[in-house]
Amino acid sequence: MLRYLVLTSLLLSSSICFAGKAPAERIHLTKLSKEAENAITKGLSWLKRNQNEDGSFGQKYKITYTSVALMAFMVQGHVPDEGIYGKNMDRCISYLIRRARKHNGYFADETSNLLYQHSYATLALAEAWGHSKRSDIGPVLKRAVNILFRSQSRDGGWHYQPNSGSGSDISCTVAAVQALASAGEAGIRIPESVINRAKRCVRRYQNPRTGKFGYSAGGAGNGTIYQAGAGPLSLYMLGDRSSTQLKRGIATLFKYPPSAIVSEADHLAHYYCIQASYQKGPKLYEHWYNAISKALIKKQSPGGGWSDPFKTGLAVLILAVPYRYLPIYQR
Looking at residue 200, which CATH number applies to its domain? Predict the structure, then answer.
């Protein structure tokens, strides 16, 4: 545990800052309850038991599932190749690296070659890089980041396939932005032009009339909870702390009552919302965390999972925000 905290401190103090992120602030977090801690431990045990022989997770979208599981294993301060989950994490990393090498640096598997799963894998390896003794992560990670640079659409966002031309959508863009933010924290230089173009693109996803973020430019779509979290989180990760678009997006998050939060079944939506609310501060964070943590604990199966590796990994990541061990959870 101490080794992990020291590495995290070194990583954050020596890395190249991504888009001029605001200095770390002291923030009161809801104390991790015993119920949440037990749920996290049970969830990690479920993941440990359900890893495939080749190190992956799931039967489809394996790269996405494996990336989320890898990050989940890190939330309590565990590091690759050490401790109770060390071997599991190392097998995750090996699987991701093998897939990248097979596809010239692009993370693809036999079930999917979508860009957002490349982004998830880039994020996971960036989070693991500073905590692993492996020398093969860095070269793969740097190549993956360069692919994201080349895949940025003309409008500044990202779409389902590399080199998509002019189109983009919020789901692929938020995944790419998180990956680049984590890579930047880890010391990889992110060009200012990439950041600024992405920032302008995300702001265009907001409906200028309602303030809600949508699927694409102009706020297209119904303004779902998923988009409500993805929009502000993307702006925060891009270094935006004060724009009108960010403020209006955060105001939308405040409008969701606990009943609406609990009724939303999309774990990925909550993963983005809890991070955006955490970046904003304690009032909004506690509004979301108190509601969703109780709902997640209630829905956990007796065996410790949440139906599949993807949902289980995301549930663990959501519940574990108070630990603040992952660099991406720093403020």
Answer: 1.50.10.20
**Strand partners for 315:** none
User: Would you tell me how many other CB atoms lie within 10 Å of the CB of residue 328?
Assistant: 17
Q: What is the pLDDT of residues 56-71, one digit of tens each?
A: 999 999 999 999 999 9
CA 2, CA 279: separation in Å to the nearest integer? Answer: 25
Structure tokens belonging to residue 248? 């209006």
What pLDDT digit, counting tens, does each position of 132-181 carry? Answer: 999 999 999 999 999 999 999 999 999 999 976 778 999 999 999 999 99
**Terminal Cα-to-Cα distance of the chain (whole angstroms):** 20
The owner of tokens 């939330």 is 75
Residue 25 falls within a domain, yes or no?
no
What DSSP designation does 53 have? Answer: T
Number of domains in the chain: 1
Owner of token pair 């692929």: 172
In this prediction the pTM is 0.91
Look at residue 24 and tell me if it is in a domain: no
